[in-house]
C-alpha cells in the first residue's frame, strides 16, 4: 500500500451530530409535508408549539425547508472549494467530504475547515504536517507522536522553542 502524504484526509462527523441532524431534518420534513400525521397532543408543550407553527406559519416553514436544503447544497460546494484550498486532491475523499457536508452541514464543514489548519496533527501518520501557505510555523522536533495532542505537537515559533 502506498504511503499517504495527508492529501486524502477524511474524518467522519460525530455520532451526536449525525443523529441530531437526521432527527431534526426528518422532523422538519415531517412537520412541513405531513403535519396531519403528527400526534401534537402527545408531545406536550413542544407539540403545542409545533401545532402553532403549522397552523400559522406553514408557508414560511415550507420556504424554510427549501432554504435549509439550499444552505446544505451551498455548504457542500464550499466543502469542495475548501478541499481544493487545503490540498485534498483525491476525488474519492473530496466526494466523501461533499456528501457528508451536504447531509450534515456545518458539523462536517467545521471538521474540514479545522482539519488542516496551521497547527495540524495527523495521527494516522504520526507526524505534523507543515502548511504550505503559512510561514513562521514549525513542528517541535520529536513531539509528533500519538500520545501528544496537536496543541503540544505543533506551534507557532515563539521564545519557548
Automatic annotation (TrEMBL):
Sequence intervals crossing the membrane: 15-33, 95-113
Topology relative to the lipid bilayer, per the entry, is: Multi-pass membrane protein
Q: Which UniProt keywords apply?
A: Membrane, Transmembrane, Transmembrane helix
* Signal peptide region: none
Stored InterPro entries? TMEM254
The GO cellular component terms are: membrane
Pfam families, alphabetized: TMEM254 (PF14934)
Where does this protein chiefly localize?
A: membrane
Write out the annotated subcellular location. Answer: Membrane
Task: Work out whether the entry's keyword set contains Membrane.
Answer: yes
Name the UniProt record assigns to this protein = Transmembrane protein 254
Q: Which organism is it from?
A: Gasterosteus aculeatus aculeatus (three-spined stickleback)
